[in-house]
Amino acid sequence: MRVRGWGRSAYTGANRQVELEHLFNGSALNAVDAKGRLSIPAFIRGVVERRSDAKAVVIGMHDVSPCLNAYDRGFARHLHAENERRRLLEEGQGGSPEAAYARARRTFGITEDVPYDTSGRIILPPMMRRKGQIEDLALFVGVGGTFEIWNPHVALESGDEDLRDLAAYRLEERGISA
Length: 178
What we know:
Layout: E1 9-11, E2 17-19, E3 27-31, E4 37-39, H1 42-51, E5 56-61, E6 68-71, H2 75-92, H3 97-109, E7 111-115, E8 121-123, H4 126-131, E9 137-142, E10 147-150, H5 152-155, H6 161-173
Antiparallel strand pairs: 1-2, 3-9, 4-8, 5-6, 5-7, 6-10, 9-10
């Protein structure tokens, strides 16, 4: 089913389409104050507002990388379906249910629903700030269906050369040596 937009679609398999304007693309480096206040970049707010009526993001730990993973409230349906698909696959292969429960806790239990105001400001919850090692700067990276929030100095140590280059570039734009 086509929703709206310019007719450009990305295919996600099983004949499911995602409109390109519903994907998070781009990056930004924003300041974080001592109370954890920061602005969600416009490129992210635009996608959130196209995909959901709520001006809020859900923030949790990334499954693999030392950063935060975030998305709009509606994306949780996709995450639940993906978790269930993986659980059934693992059970079919004789796997233990503990992995599925741990994944469900990470996906839905260790998250925070964070509203933003009309100018896009949020207060990053203290637990998420700690989990993501976010200090005075936050590097936002669009990764399609979700976006990541990195401490740019942690991103500089990543095994991903492109992420390292992106973090260095965004820091240098602000006059901070990488």
